[in-house]
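Sample entry (101 residues):
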Amino acid sequence: MKSDLEDFKIDYTQHRYLRTPDAARLLGLSGRTLEKHRTFGTGPQYFKLGGRVVYRLVDLMNWVKPGCKASTSDPGQGTVLPAKRLAVSPQKQKLITKGRI
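Predicted structure, serialized as tokens:
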């Protein structure tokens, strides 16, 4: 007789969590760069568990995927943004300063 738990399978590669230093090492970045990406909203999704920041392995891979290219002339799927503040249109800046966003 088969139990209900035998049908319950978890893909642990999708549920593996890495702290900032390990995630940075995996991506070939510094921990500080990942911190900047969190600040500017340009980085991979992350979770706060208590006071700790953790990244799911699948989220890290999805974040770098748009940067995948086959050659220097390949436009690829997109671009991984640099860790810097994004430009804001003057109209949006007005809304931000008025507290509407």
